[in-house]
Each structure stands twice: as C-alpha cells, then as structure tokens.
Write a structure and sequence with these properties.
- The chain is mainly α.
- The protein starts with 14 loop residues before the first helix and ends with a helix.
- The chain is elongated.
- The chain contains five helices and no strands.
- α2 crosses α3 and α3 packs across α5.
C-alpha cells in the first residue's frame, strides 16, 4: 500500500485555507501516515470499521486541536486505508 495522502478540495476552502493548502495537506497526511503505522504495529484482529475509527482518532490525536476539530476525511477513503491494514495482517 502506498502511504496515504490527504488532498483538500480547493472548492471547499476559504481564501486563508487555500493559501495554507500545501502545508495543511502535508500535516494532515503526516498525521494519517503516523496513525497508519501505529495501527499496523498494534493490529489485533479488529474489524475494518474499528480500524477506520481508530485511524480517524489517531490521526486527530496527532494534530493541533483546532486542525483536528475540522479534520473530517472522506469515510470511504479512510475505510480503504483500513481495509489495506486488515488485509495485510
């Protein structure tokens, strides 16, 4: 599996968010990648839905609280990452 990457929809961003888009995408992607590694290392047979929830929780935990509060990734995309984790176990 390639490292997960977050891409923000430019049509949904405010002008300030658009100016910060690159660094914000990098920070969100980094948090998701760290969560993916941590969950892969501790995976113990959880369901895909459980892993999806864990990915979201762990990703948010790695972000500044203000950024974490606004981090709402596409559930299906996050689920694909979870499916890859479960399939590799």
């Amino acid at each position: 599996m390639a490292e997960p990457h977050i891409t923000l929809d430019p049509n949904s961003l405010t002008p300030v968010e658009e100016k910060l888009r690159g660094p914000l995408e990098d920070q969100l992607s980094s948090a998701l990648q760290a969560a993916t590694v941590k969950i892969e290392q501790t995976y113990a047979g959880e369901s895909v839905e459980q892993v999806t929830s864990m990915l979201l929780e762990q990703s948010r935990a790695g972000l500044h609280p203000d950024i974490a509060a606004g981090f709402n990734p596409d559930h299906e995309q996050l689920r694909h990452v979870a499916e890859a984790i479960v399939a590799r176990a």
